[in-house]
Each structure stands twice: as C-alpha cells, then as structure tokens.
Amino acid sequence: MTHLTETTILTKPKGPRMIDFSAPRHRKKFGYLLLAPAVILMALIIVYPILLSVDISFQDVRIARVGASDKPWTLDNYRWLFASHEFWRACWVTAKMVVFVGGTALVIGLATALLVNQKFKGRALARLFVALPWAVPEVVATVIWAWMLDSSFGVVNWALLRLGIISEAIQFSQNSTAAFFAVCVVMIWKGYPLMTIMLLAGLQSIPEEQYQAAKVDGASVWQRFWYVTVPNLAPVMGVTLIMTTLWVFRDFAIIHVLTGGGPLGATTTLSIMTFEQSFSYFRMGQGAAVGVVTMLICAFISRALVSRFASKSH
Amino acid sequence: MTHLSKITVMGAFAISTALTALPAVSETLVFVSWMKDEPGYGDWWNEIIAEYEATHDGVDIEMTRVARDDYANAMFTMFAGGSPPDIVHLAAFEYQPFADEGWLEPLDAWIENSELDLTGWAGQGTCEWDGSTYCIMLLYTGYIMSFNEQMLADAGIDAAPATWDEFLTAARAITKDTDGDGLIDQYGIGLPTKGAGSVMHSMLNFVLDAGGAWTVDGEPTFNSPETIEGISRFKTIFVEKLSPPELGSGDVRQLFIEGRVGMTVDGPWVYNIVKGASDDIRPDLKLAKTPFSPPVGGTSNVLGMPSDLSDDKKQLVWEFIELATSEQFQQRFATLGSSPAPRPGLDYSEEIAKDPYFALFDAANTDAAAAGIDRLPKGLEIEFAEVSKIVLEETQRMLIEDLEPAEAGQRMQDRVLALK
Amino acid sequence: MQRSKLGQIGIYTAVIVTVVLLLFPIYWMTITALSPANQLRSFPPVFFPEEPQWGVFSELLATQPFALWLKNTILIAVATMILALSVSILAAYALSRYRLRGGATIGMFILTSKMLPATLLVIPFFAIFKQMGLVGSLWSVVITQSTLIVPFCTWMLKGYFDTIPEELEHAALVDGCSPFATIFRIVLPVAAPGLAATALYAFVISWSDFLFARTFLQTSESQWTLNMGIAALKGEYITDWNVIMAASLMASIPILLVFLVLERFLVGGLASGAEK
User: Domain C64-274 belongs to what architecture?
Assistant: First the structure.
C-alpha cells in the first residue's frame, strides 16, 4: 500500500481543452480521470446518505421524511444514547461477537488453509469444498441454520442430546449464552471461507526458499510456522480480520432472523439496535445516532488496524 | 475536473432517464398487501381487482405481496422515502404512527360525500385517530379454538375443554413422549411466542380470561392482580413444557395440521389451513368456542390512502375502497374468507348452511365485540412496538430467572410507565 | 517413505472430517427439501429419506415465478460484476501507477464504505433512487451493490497490478499507444487471473444481496430476486420447511456452479495481490 501513504505535490497544469494524456505533464490528470468514476459513485451512494444520517441524528424526530423541513439541531439523541443502558450493552455484545467470530473464523480459516495447502490427491476438490459456504447466499444460510437450530425439532439439539453434551433441549429464546453462540456459529460458518481463500492465497505467495533456509538452519515444523508462515501471512490476516470485523459490525440479517436480538438483548448488536430504533420503534433520530456512533467506532478500528498492519508489512 | 464531473453527472442523468422513460399508456394503482395469494382473503382481493379493472377503463391495479414479517418496515421505507403505495393496506395495530405523521388522508369528507354508512361497522372505532377517520376496518375477528379430537380422545378427554382448568388438564394429558426416546414429541398446546408481538398476543388469552387487561381507560394495568393471574397461567404452560417453545404462528398451524399439537387458539382463518391438512388427519381436526371468556378478538387490518396523492388518484383509490366495502363484496368476503365481514346487516344463512362453523365464527366475533376487546391496548398505540418488546423481555426474564409473575407484571408496569 | 504414507492417511482423515462438518448445513438443506413435510419434525431426524420427494421442485416451479426470479438475479449479478469491475480496474490502475495527491485519503475513503451500517442507509438510498426514478428498477440494486463492492475489488486489483512490471507499458506508450489503449491491450490480458478472481467476488456478493433488493424492488413483483422469493415463502400463515429448503437449494445451485468453475482463479488471482 505504498502509494496510499505517500503524497506528492501537484503543480497546477494549464493547457488546451483537448488534453494529450500521454504527455508527461498530464500524466497525473489521467490518473485522476481514471479515479473519477469510483469517486463519483462513492460520493453519490456513500457520502450523501452519511450526511443525511448525521443530520437526522441531530434532530429530535420520531420519523424523518427525506426532503421535509429540518427541525433545529439538538444533542438530545446523543445524550439519550450515552445515558442508555441498552447502548452500552449493545457495545459490549458487539465487542464480544467481533472478537469471538473474528478469532474463531481466523483459526478455522488458517487451519483449513494450511490443510488444503498440503500436497495430496484431490486437493483441488478439497479446496473447492472448504470454501463452498462462502458462495451460499446469506438468506439461504440463515434459513438453513434457523431450521437446524430449531428449539423443538432442530437437528443440532438432537445431536447434542444424543452425544450427551446436553441433557435437555436448548431453548434459544430462554438461554442468553446459547442464543449468542448460535448467532456466532452461523456468522463463523458464513465468514471463515473468505479467510481460507485469502490465507491460502497468502500461503502460496510465500517463497519456498524461506522454508528451505529455515530447514537448513534446523527449524522444527512449529518454528517454521511461527517464524516463516505467520510473519508472511500477517498483512493478509490483517486485511481479512478488518473485513470480518466490519462485517460482524454491519450484519443485520443473520441476527434478525435467528434471534431478533434477544433474549433480553443478549444478541442485540449496534446494527440491530440501529434497526430497532428506526424501524420498530419509529425513533429515527435515536436510530441515526446509534448508526453514526457505530460508524465512528468502525472508522477508528479500521484506521488503527490499517496503520498497524501497513507498518508491519514494510 | 469540474467540467469533467459535470459531463459525468449529465451522463448519469441521461442514462437514468433513458432507463425509465417508458411510455405511460394507462394509470396504475399500486396496491401492496401481505394477503396476496393467501387462501381465502387473497381470492377475495382478486375478485375486487377484477371487478374494478372491468369497470374502470385504462386503470390497472398492480397488487404486490410483501411478507408479513417485513411489512411494517417496507411500508415505512416507502412512506419515508416519499413513494407510498396508492392503496394503503395495514394491520390495524400499525396504522397509527402513519396517521400520526400525517401520511394518511383523513377519510371523513370522502365517507360523507359517498354516503357510506359506517354505523355498526365492526371495529371501525379503531380507525379514528386524533378526531379523524383515517381508514376503513376490513376485518374484526373473535378467536376460536382448534383441536385434534383424536389426540384428546387418546388422552382420555372426551369433550373440548370449556374452561381454563379443563384446558390445562387436557394439555397435561396430551403432552408426552410417544416413541419413548426421552424427548417430548407431542404437545398439548401450540402457542406462538416468536417475535415480540406474539408473546403479548398469546398471553392476552389468559389475561382476559382471568378478568385482566393491558390498559383500563388508557392507563397501563400490567400489575393488576387479574393481569398477573393471566401472566401466571402463561408461565405455567411454558414451565410445564405444554407448548413447544419459540414457535411462529405459521409453525403452530403447521404443527397442528401435522397432528403434533393438540390445541391452538387462533382466528377463523385457521379453518382455511385445516382444509389443507392431509386426508388422514383432517377428519380429526375440529373447531370450537375458546375456553377463555371473553375470547381474544381484535381489529385485524385496514384500508386507507396516502395524503400526498393527486386528487384524481385519490378519487380512483376511494372508488376501490368503496367497492371493497360494498354490500356485494362484503358478502363475498364472508363466503371466501369464511369469516364474518365487518359490514352490519349481512345475511349469513347461506354461509351457515354451507358450513356450520360459520355460526361459531359469528358468535366469537359477537362475544369479542360485545366485550369491547382489542388486542391493541388503548392508550399505547404509538408505543405499541416498544410495549410488546417490554412484555417479551420481562416474560423471558421471568422464565429464565424463574421470577414470580407478580414481579414480572410490576416490571412491565414500571417500564411502560417510564415510556410515556 | 513410511512416514509420508501415514501422513497422507492423516491428511485425508482430516480433510474428510473437515469437509463433512463444514458442508453439513448444505447437505441438510438438500435432505430437508427432499423429505415429505410430515417427516421433518421427527426424532431421530431422517438423514436419508427413503422416498425422495422430487415433486417439490416441479410444484415450486409451477406455483412460483421461479424463472423470473432467476433471470432478475442473474441480470443483477452480471451487471453488478461488469460495472464494479470497470470502475475498479480504472481506480486500481490509477492507484497502482500514479502517485496521486490525496491518494491516501481516497484509499481510506474507499475503505469507509465497508463500515456503513446498511440499515441506517436504507431510507437515504431509497430517496436517492426515487429522485433518479430508479426505484423498482434492477439498476438501483446494481448501482448500490457495485459501489459497496468497488473498494475490495480495487484493493484486490491494485495488488495484482502492482506485480505487473511497468516496463511493458512504457514500451507501448513510446510506440504511440494511448494510455487507455495501453491499459486494455497490455495490462488487462496479463492481469486476467486477477480479473477472474475479482469478477467471481463481485458475482457472489451481488448474488447474495437481500437488503437492497428488498428495499428497492419490494413493490414491483416482476423485479423480484431469488432471495426475496425465498423470504416471501416463509409466509405469514404457514411454514413449510421442505418447500423453503427446496427453493433455497434451487437458488444456490447456479451460484455454486459458477463458484465451482471459477474458484481456482480466486486463490490464484489473490495470491499475487496478497503479497502487497
């Protein structure tokens, strides 16, 4: 990511309307031209909605209608937010979920990537299978798991009972811990394959000579893993972790369908809280405040992670 | 850069215009409903639409289905985004925030001009908000009990339960593990508890029977002794595992027609579902008066129009509403939906002759209406979603921490009062 | 080579156990779809139905506009892929080859789009597309999805472009080739594996979309996608798990096939990009 962190000073170019982009002095202009579609798309689809949400979050409104006249700005929604027990609980739930889902998905992703990176017959097929859940649409994944985790007739409860792990069927609506882990399991199932794919790609770009050199120095399998594989994978791990973290922060469908945020708020993340305030309770001002704060938290985390991993890789 | 971005913006607009510039040949009324293709009511809507299009040249009605689970959100997005459907169909417990925002057209002038007489129209009182009429009630129902006669007989119960005690006894007798693997696979009761609204709704059966109510004269009464008795009965059912947990209302009906639960309490629409059961079970499935008195009843769904339509379109939509409320189509409603229509003075002798259950539905309606029952608590309409979330959470807390129902009732009361 | 034989057996066992565990939900979807409705809620569960009910598929096709949903989903996925790819190719090339002022800001900005709680943005999105007259048009979903996909695609492609030596392009420019033509004639052919990987990513993500389709296309039934159809099947009056699973299976098969064909490019295409 070298170019992202470097800045150069652009001299103001003057010239005729028709610009010869191959001329050296217009090279940068051409660069901006190439970037323009992405920037325009982003400005339209990302910036405007953010500004609108920030605006709504400062208004004391139940239902804000786009294009309607604004109410005066106030900090009421933020005052409510920081005083609300629900908000802090949602932060805690989100943090737990991010750490648990991110960590487990990383472990499974790394384990499966290392496994299918071995040389064996049928390896291509194994790689395909291991990454398959990634291609299953989220709606489909959610209905499958909703059915498997059914409290009365689900196959998961049955299997746990038969294996003697539990003595009584788990009621996901009456067990905060079970509900939390149910949501996490589904997220991990949907989230680990991207880790596998990215880490596998990372593994393949590690030069074989480094392993050979380590072998010559008498490094054990574990030592080779810690001193060759892990440092080489660090940048990829960083990027995939950021992606997974942000995905858990944003995800709505899985939790909404499986638990609706319950029981007693055990699975109410910031994203669910945003939705609940805006759409269930018709308190859009408060909902927007939750959303804006969520966005700031995410920006802060990714900023921290990006600079950390960016510095590590150089 | 500036003229470059200008060109791009113009280009984007040109493309978007080209994409949408379809020739407008006729007027289309957009009608969104969760009832499309449902057995019974869906057919009724189709008949109205066919009749309307036949009598209105050049006007098409585009009926679109939106799943019930997403319904309020979808409507909310459409209204807030400035593009509501032309014909507004909403559940009776969710129209109030829309009316409160001024998104719905007050219908008083329209009703007066077309001389529509709404005296005695079942549940129409619910359509009044802030002194104006915002909608026309389409359905008011009293709940009935459906039961599996064979399962009751196998458990040694030979008559449909008629009181709470008999209901509880029967439920205990039916609930068992039929194949001896240690897991209960046959339940006495199917009670929907999935989703915030359904816990409150299911609990209301017992609260009403115990003489309680969510509100009295608009003031919350979650902690009255009668309401607490109702909460206590609900707790008994789930503590003793007489109903499978976490069912949606769709799951309950499915389990009932599969012969896995013995008794359910539901609206008359359950009859259309029972008709779809497989041949070996259908003869065992019977309907009866609920063992609870008064029965849960309530306004179900309403029809209205958005306030920001053009006058021409409003006229077209009103004509649609007039057709739906006409005597002819109210009679069809009773026939197709197998439930009494809200319009007073209809003759149901034909329906009753065709199907004896119709008298049962009619009686349940009359009982619920006479007791002035509505599942939407008066005085809490705007906060209804939050109130049902509170009831859900405190019920879960009661079951998880095994709290006394009185404590749960008190917590509900405190939290609801804090909302207001 | 005794040890390696043992090792091989170990690897195969590990692979089989892993694959069985991870793919069980997909298997369970298939079995549920093929089981008769009244056997679904039984203990022990039926792991292999004696008489698979193939009729459920034809019944679905007869009662639901499945072909229409499929067509819409394909149109959205293909259009999203093309739009997202075109935009990201240009942006990635610019970020890879030109040291642009504000490049860091733009890079950060691009990443930002990954952080938005989508539920917060639904109403602003709806208003924007309403103004453009695109509510109810597949374009609304295509444009939103593309925008959200572009950041990752740009990052992937930039990594890939960085590995391609610049000398080729200089030579082409000296030969009088225009900068645009250089990208298309020189850079893209070399970057084909990276492009395939990015295309697959865009395709899979847009096939999975539900929130935006639900928001923009809800009221025009002729524009529904497969995911919306599945959600609608979980209707208000009754829950038929076998029908829902049959629909889910049919909605997944096309994307699983695409994945089957293009998966090898995904890892290969990413491998070069991942170094950066």
Answer: Orthogonal Bundle (1.10)
